[in-house]
Amino acid sequence: xxxxxxxxxxxxxxxxxxxxxxxxxxxxxxxxxxxxxxxxxxxxxxxxxxxxxxxxxxxxxxxxxxxxxxxxxxxxxxxxxxxxxxxxxxxxxxxxxxxxxxxxxxxxxxxxxxxxxxxxxxxxxxxxxxxxxxxxxxxxxxxxxxxxxxxxxxxxxxxxxxxxxxxxxxxxxxxxxxxxxxxxxxxxxxxxxxxxxxxxxxxxxxxxxxxxxxxxxxxxxxxxxxxxxxxxxxxxxxxxxxxxxxxxxxxxxxxxxxxxxxxxxxxxxxxxxxxxxxxxxxxxxxxxxxxxxxxxxxxxxxxxxxxxxxxxxxxxxxxxxxxxxxxxxxxxxxxxxxxxxxxxxxxxxxxxxxxxxxxxxxxxxx
Length: 366
What we know:
The chain has about 375 residues and is mainly alpha-helical. The protein folds into three domains: about 40-235, Lysozyme, CATH 1.10.530; about 245-315, no CATH class; about 320-360, Membrane-bound Lytic Murein Transglycosylase D, Chain A, CATH 3.10.350.10. It contains 14 helices and eight strands. The chain has helices spanning about 1-30, 55-70, 75-100, 105-110, 130-135, 150-165, 175-180, 185-195, 205-225, 255-260, 265-275, 300-315, 325-335, 340-345; strands at about 45, 50, 245-250, 255, 280, 285-290, 320, 360. The strands form four sheets. It has a two-stranded antiparallel ribbon. A two-stranded antiparallel sheet has the order 3-6. A hairpin with a 2-residue loop joins strand 1 (about 45) and strand 2.
């Protein structure tokens, strides 16, 4: 027993030694910076043109904490850098068009790490982590079928409008960022109670106190990644978004598979290009759908043909529910997965079915 403990302790000591050696060697090669090196050379720092008072010890400490935490989460930073060329040009264009400072692009990095499906425990979703009520207030559609918080372009326009409104709180972009995180009413209350109009001198919820410094850390790292030990080549970046926006009118719900076939691509490609679409169908109404650029020619004609064929196919595959049927027994009878039956008919497993109801049942595949 004692031998086992000794071996365990020896193994821990060796592991620490090897890790330290690896980091030291990496630092010498310029691949991984010594922790303190990440903090050197930061003298003049601004957020949206507003100076960060780094001469104040408390402010410098708060920045250093977030910068060190960010720098040492190396896989996350590498993913920031790889996603940056894919999404950031579009975010920059919307911010510029809206008349907002370019620095707000780093807020999207902190909010979602540039992931359309990012979500929080509180229910915030998408690139800009909108809550449902705020998203709807700024014109985004959020329901069971469409969630535009996941749409890069729509959500960035909404975030821009929201930030511009928040700027009016105290004519400060830094306070606007804080209000974005904690809510405008909460920030207004704290400013009134404390009698302070400067973000860096306000006592705010800890998450909000960190939020602006996390944005500043992202700005520092992404503007000079080599200084922080990140050496990525151009080919390391993920390819930029390449698509063709196509306006379509759906008079009934259309399966994503039909749209994918018309675009000469796969279901997943259409879902990835249009992350705001929830489920397997595009709901009836007017939509702008992004499709691969090389599928633009003839897309509308192929889509019309596909929708007509789908409607005809549906009418030929109708099953009338009989007394004693249930969804599981029907799925077994036709040798199809129960989840497929639910998707085809857009029904909830908990919803009752009745004799005489109609179900669509497609052939087994594969």
